[in-house]
């Protein structure tokens, strides 16, 4: 009896210690965001006070509509949603089909070709900006959705992630489907993809976050305000209101909200995908 109580007490202590460690790690990540929200509700001069105020003396809800109407942020959010949404669909589709080929199909040079794909990860993304721009410029796609989206539709990291997950799926399921007369496409569509929802959700969340906060490529690929995205709009907004920190923080908080909504909507699949897509 005493041993059982001792073991239970020990597990409780370990749980408290683990929870405290997680809390200590979470505080440095959460505090800046909370201070950003607090600053967005301050008066313009209150945010410049020394020492800085932690909470607003009088909540200024009007900072949000004032900041979001100073530039066409509605258009920026629409462009970013279209951009990120199309890229997510494209990356999930191309990554899933390529990953299945590398994980399950047998063809000459498969492993060497996969290593060649992985070698692209070592190339700095900024090196590819000029070739990508020349490509869309030659097609007349500068300052258009086609130019903004087309060169982002393939993710080498996504192919690698899904390939590792596909390799964990038992081959017995595929063999059983083949005995029932299913071809490769039917196996991929009806067997592999339904079992891969956590990994697909993980890739979709990462792709959406990556494109939502994409700044450099939209800055190069677009020229007009009508084709601007959120990150480019925030940079322009900073230049206009460089001394008005509450307005800047209000715009930044609004830009973060869609990311939080996407994460919470896909949280169950996302966390499951993180657990299952270990590198083998």
SSE topology string: HHHHHHHHHHHHHH
The N- and C-terminal alpha carbons lie at a distance of 42 Å
CATH class division of the largest domain: Mainly Alpha
Number of helices: 14
> Pairing-aware structural class of the strands and helices?
mainly alpha
Low-confidence stretches: none
Number of DSSP-assigned strands: 0
- What fraction strand? under 5%
Q: What is the global morphology?
A: globular
Mind summarizing the main beta sheet? none
Overall radius of gyration: 24 Å
Per CATH, the architecture of the largest domain is Orthogonal Bundle
Give a quick set of tags describing it:
single chain; 280 residues; mainly alpha; MetI-like fold; 2 domains
């Amino acid at each position: 009896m005493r041993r059982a109580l001792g073991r239970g007490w020990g597990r409780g202590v370990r749980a408290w210690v683990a929870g405290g460690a997680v809390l200590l790690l979470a505080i440095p990540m959460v505090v800046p965001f909370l201070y950003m929200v607090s600053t967005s509700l301050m008066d313009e001069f209150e945010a410049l006070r020394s020492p800085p105020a932690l909470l607003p003396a009088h909540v200024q809800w009007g900072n949000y509509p004032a900041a979001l109407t100073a530039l066409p942020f509605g258009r920026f959010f629409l462009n970013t949603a279209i951009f990120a949404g199309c890229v997510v669909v494209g990356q999930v589709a191309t990554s899933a089909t390529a990953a299945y080929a590398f994980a399950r199909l047998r063809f000459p040079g498969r492993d060497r070709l996969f290593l060649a794909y992985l070698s692209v990860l070592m190339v700095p993304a900024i090196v590819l900006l000029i070739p990508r721009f020349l490509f869309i410029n030659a097609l007349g796609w500068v300052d258009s959705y086609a130019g903004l989206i087309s060169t982002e539709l393939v993710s080498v990291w996504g192919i690698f992630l899904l390939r590792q997950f596909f390799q964990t799926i038992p081959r017995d399921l595929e063999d059983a489907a083949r005995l029932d007369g299913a071809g490769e496409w039917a196996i991929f569509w009806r067997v592999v993809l339904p079992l891969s929802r956590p990994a697909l959700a993980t890739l979709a969340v990462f792709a959406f976050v990556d494109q939502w906060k994409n700044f450099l490529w939209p800055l190069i690929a677009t020229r007009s305000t009508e084709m601007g995205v959120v990150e480019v709009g925030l940079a322009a907004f900073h230049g206009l209101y460089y001394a008005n920190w509450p307005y800047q923080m209000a715009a930044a908080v609004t830009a973060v909200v869609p990311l939080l909504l996407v994460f919470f909507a896909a949280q169950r699949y996302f966390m499951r995908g993180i657990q299952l897509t270990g590198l083998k």
